[in-house]
Structure formats: C-alpha cells, structure tokens
Amino acid sequence: MDAKLAAAIAKDDELEDCGMHGDDRVTCWPHQCWVADCEDLH
Ligand SMILES: [Zn+2]
C-alpha cells in the first residue's frame, strides 16, 4: 500500500467517525484500496 492511500484510508476513518456516510468514502476499508479500484468486488 502506498503512503497516499494509507493517508486517505486514515482520513476516511476519521471522517466516518465524525458522521460521514460510508458511501462517501474514497477508500475501501475491507479491501484497503481506492473505491474506484475495487468497485467490482462490492
Ligand atoms: Zn473494496
């Protein structure tokens, strides 16, 4: 995992804790990747 992705995942986790809807994440927690890169898995 690259640092940019790791940072984005951490930020999404933080935003979700603050009330952001899970659908608004740009990263996928279960797959540890960008949502755009794993849409087929969902
Ligand atoms: Zn995914």
Tags for this entry?
binds zinc ion, two-stranded antiparallel sheet, 2 helices, mainly alpha, single chain, 42 residues
Topology at a glance:
Layout: H1 3-17, E1 27-28, E2 33-34, H2 35-38
Antiparallel strand pairs: 1-2
This protein binds zinc ion.
The major beta sheet can be summarized as: 2 strands, antiparallel
- Name the helix and strand elements from N-terminus to C-terminus, one letter apiece: HEEH
Structural class: mainly alpha
Give the CA-CA distance, first to last residue: 20 Å
Number of domains: 1
What would the principal axes of the Cα set say about the shape? flat
The radius of gyration computed from the alpha-carbon positions, rounded to a whole number of angstroms, is 10 Å
> What do the pLDDT scores average to?
92
